[in-house]
Amino acid sequence: MTKYNKLEDGMGYLVDTTEETLKLACCDCGMVHYIGITIKDDQNIMIGFKKDKRATAQLRRHSYGFLQQGREKHKLVRND
């Protein structure tokens, strides 16, 4: 079980409260952010982002299994 729920492209997220904080990790670069979502007056949505340096370093250090998924690893070939 991972700490982060994996969402596919095009998947939405339902916010069911007036205030919610999410922790988002990019599966490509491993950058982790806190995302604060606040709904004001049932019309205006406020979104704020804050970088989580410690979680980013930890995620990248352990490469969490699905970082940079789908990318081929290239072997270095030496031409003598």
H/E series: EEEH
Number of strands: 3
Question: What's the helix count?
Answer: 1
Q: How much helix is in the residues? A: 10-25%
Search tags:
single chain; 80 residues; alpha+beta; 3-stranded antiparallel β-sheet; 1 helix; elongated
Tell me what the structure shows.
The protein has one helix and three strands, in the order βββα. By secondary structure, it is α+β, with helices and mostly antiparallel strands. It has a domain at 19-62. Strands 1-2-3 form a three-stranded antiparallel β-sheet. Strand 1 and strand 2 (32-40) form a beta hairpin. It starts with 18 loop residues before the first strand and ends in an 18-residue tail after the last helix.
Summarize the structure.
12% of the residues lie in helices and 30% in strands. With 80 residues, the chain is of the alpha+beta class.
What's the layout of helices and strands?
Layout: E1 19-25, E2 32-40, E3 44-51, H1 53-62
Antiparallel strand pairs: 1-2, 2-3
